[in-house]
Design a protein that fits this description.
α7 packs antiparallel against α8, α9 packs antiparallel against α10 and α10 runs parallel beside α12. The longest helix has about 30 residues. The chain folds into 2 domains: about 400 residues, Up-down Bundle (Na+/H+ antiporter like fold); about 80 residues, Alpha-Beta Plaits (2-Layer Sandwich), CATH 3.30.70. It starts with a helix and ends with a strand. The chain is built from 20 helices and 7 strands. It is of the alpha+beta class. The chain is elongated.
Length: about 500
C-alpha cells in the first residue's frame, strides 16, 4: 500500500505532538524525556498501534542527520572557558576510556554469551562489536538530561561530562567500524590497516573541524544578507556541510562537527543569539525525531528473548565496567576527587547513539547476529536511561556535588535580551502599594547607582518613563543594572520579592 505524503505528515505531526505532551508530563515525575520519546515510538510501532517502519537504511540516514545536528548544537553551547580546566581528563575519557569500556565489557559479554547462548556461537569479535556500539556515553542524553534537570554541579563536573559525551562518539563509531571490518575479513584481518584508519579519521576529523569552524565564522561575518532570518539557516547549512565534507575527506564527521560547533559558538558572529536559539530548537526537534524513529524501528516482542542477558550486561556496565574505567583513566588527575569520579561513573548514560551504531551492522547485511546486537543495545539503552537518567539529581545530592540553583521566574511582559557581551543584570519587577510607600515618583525610588528603569507597562500600554513619572500599584518595570548585588539588596529592603531576573553568563 502506498502511503500519501499528507498521511505521513499527519502521522508525523501527531507523533511529535504526543511526544511533547508526554515529555512535559514525564519531566514533572523525573522521567527522562528522551526515554519517553523512545517509548512513544515503540507504542505506535509494529507491536503497538501497528505503524510499519522497517527500513533500516532510512532509519540510519535519519539518525546520522539528527546526531550531526545534536552534536553541532552541543558544541555551539559549550563555552571554552568552562571546559578549559578539564580538557585533558575529558579527552582521556573520550578516547582511552571508550576503548577500555569496549574491551572490558566485550570480554564480559563473550563469557556471558558462552554461558547463556552457547548455541548462537557468539565470537569474541562479535562480543567486542556489541560492546563498541555502547562504549560511549550518549551526547543527546547527557545534554538533554543535564540541561532539562537544571543541575548545577560542583567542581566543573557538568562541562567535563558534556565534553566527554560530545567528543567520545567518534571513538565508539570507529571501534564499531573496526570490528565490523575484522568480522568481514574473516581469518585474515589486517589489524595495522584498521588501526591506521582509526587514527586517520580522528586526526583528520579534528583538524578539519577546527579549520571549517574558523572558515564558517568568516563566511557568516562577511556575507551580507538583507533577510536576517536566513542567518540561522546559514549556520545549520554550514554544520551539515562540515559533517558531510569531512566524511568524504576521510575524517570523522561527528568529531569534526562537534569541534566546529565549539569554534563557532565561542566566536563572535552576526546574529549570533538568534542563530543559537534556532539551533537549540532544531536540536530538540532532532532529538524527538531521532528517538521516535528508533522506537518505531524496534519490535518490542523481540526484546523479551534478550531481556535477561541485556539486564546482566547493564548491571555489569553500570556497577563495574564504567566505574573501573573512570577510576583507571582519571588516576593521573589528582584534583578530581573520589566523589567526583563516583558521579562521573554514574553518568555513563546510554541513549540514541548506541542504537544508531547498532543499526550499522543491521544495515550492512553481512554481519552475523546483527539483529541480536541491535536488540541487546536497545534494552541496555532503556535500562540506562531509566536507572541512571532518573537518578542523576538524587545521586548528585547524595554525594554532595549539587549546588542549589537560584530560580527566578521567566519574564512575563518584557521580551528583551542582551547581546552576549553585555553582563548587566535585567529584572522585571511588580509595583505594589507597599512599594509606593518609598516613593510615588520614579525619581523617589531608592534604586542604586548604575541602575536604569527603561520601560513601564501599565495595563496594556508600554512607555519609556522619566524621573517624574508617577508610579501606580500594578505597574511592571523593566530595570537594568550593572550592580546586581546592590539591586537585589534594594529589592529586599523595599519589600520587592515578586521579580524576574536575567543575566548573561
Amino acid at each position: 500500500m502506498q502511503i500519501s505524503t499528507e498521511l505521513m505528515l499527519l502521522v508525523g505531526s501527531v507523533l511529535f505532538f504526543i511526544s511533547m505532551l508526554v515529555g512535559k508530563a514525564g519531566s514533572k515525575f523525573g522521567v527522562p524525556v528522551l526515554l519517553l520519546f523512545l517509548l512513544v515510538g515503540m507504542v505506535f510501532g509494529t507491536d503497538g498501534f501497528g505503524l510499519q517502519f522497517e527500513n533500516v537504511q532510512v532509519a540510519q540516514t535519519i539518525s546520522s542527520i539528527c546526531l550531526c545536528i545534536i552534536l553541532f548544537s552541543g558544541g555551539l553551547d559549550t563555552k571554552f572557558k568552562e571546559i578549559q580546566p578539564i580538557i585533558a581528563p575529558g579527552v582521556v575519557l573520550a578516547t582511552i576510556g571508550v576503548l577500555l569500556t569496549a574491551l572490558l565489557t566485550g570480554f564480559f559479554i563473550y563469557w556471558l554469551s558462552g554461558m547463556m547462548f552457547p548455541a548462537l556461537g557468539i565470537s569474541l569479535v562479535t562480543s567486542l562489536l556489541l560492546a563498541s556500539t555502547f562504549s560511549s556515553t550518549d551526547s543527546a542524553s547527557v545534554f538533554g538530561i543535564l540541561r532539562s534537570k537544571g543541575l548545577i554541579l560542583k567542581n566543573n563536573l557538568r562541562p567535563l561530562l558534556e565534553l566527554e559525551s560530545g567528543s567520545n562518539d567518534p571513538m565508539a563509531y570507529l571501534l564499531t567500524l573496526m570490528f565490523m571490518q575484522i568480522i568481514r575479513s574473516g581469518d585474515s584481518p589486517n589489524y595495522g590497516m584498521v588501526i591506521l584508519m582509526v587514527l586517520v579519521q580522528l586526526i583528520v576529523g579534528g583538524l578539519l573541524g577546527f579549520v571549517f569552524g574558523k572558515g564558517a565564522v568568516r563566511i557568516i561575518n562577511r556575507i551580507r544578507m538583507e533577510n536576517t532570518a536566513l542567518y540561522p539557516i546559514l549556520l545549520l547549512t554550514l554544520g551539515i556541510f562540515i559533517y558531510a565534507a569531512t566524511y568524504y575527506l576521510q575524517g570523522n564527521g561527528y568529531l569534526a562537527v562537534y569541534i566546529a560547533g565549539l569554534v563557532i559558538g565561542n566566536s563572535k558572529f552576526t546574529h549570533k543569539r538568534t542563530s543559537m536559539k534556532f539551533m537549540d530548537g532544531f536540536a530538540w526537534m532532532s532529538q524527538i525525531l531521532l528517538f521516535l524513529t528508533l522506537g518505531l524501528l524496534v519490535n518490542p516482542s523481540e526484546l523479551i528473548d534478550v531481556a535477561l542477558p541485556a539486564l546482566i550486561v547493564s548491571a555489569f556496565l553500570i556497577l563495574f565496567g564504567r566505574p573501573i574505567v573512570v577510576f583507571l583513566t582519571l588516576m593521573p588527575f589528582r584534583k578530581i576527587g573520589v566523589k567526583d569520579k563516583m558521579y562521573i561513573s554514574w553518568v555513563g548514560l546510554r541513549g540514541a547513539v548506541p542504537i544508531i551504531f547498532a543499526i550499522l551492522p543491521l544495515a550492512s547485511g553481512d554481519i552475523p547476529h546483527a539483529r541480536w546486537i541491535f536488540n541487546m543495545v536497545f534494552v541496555i539503552t532503556i535500562v540506562s536511561l531509566l536507572v541512571q537518567g532518573t537518578s542523576l539529581p538524587l545521586v548528585a545530592r547524595w554525594l554532595g556535588l549539587a549546588e542549589k540553583p537560584t530560580k527566578y521566574k521567566e519574564f512575563e511582559d518584557f521580551d528583551v535580551e542582551f547581546a552576549e557581551e553585555i553582563k548587566s543584570a535585567m529584572t522585571e519587577i511588580h509595583i505594589s502599594e507597599e512599594t509606593l510607600g518609598y516613593g510615588k515618583n520614579l525619581i523617589e525610588m531608592p534604586f542604586p547607582d548604575k541602575t536604569l528603569v527603561v520601560m513601564v507597562k501599565r495595563g496594556e500600554q508600554y512607555f519609556v518613563p522619566t524621573g517624574q513619572t508617577e508610579l501606580h500599584a500594578g505597574d511592571k518595570l523593566l530595570v537594568i543594572s550593572d550592580d546586581e548585588d546592590a539591586l537585589k539588596e534594594t529589592y529586599n529592603n523595599i519589600g520587592i520579592s515578586n521579580y524576574s531576573y536575567q543575566k548573561n553568563k
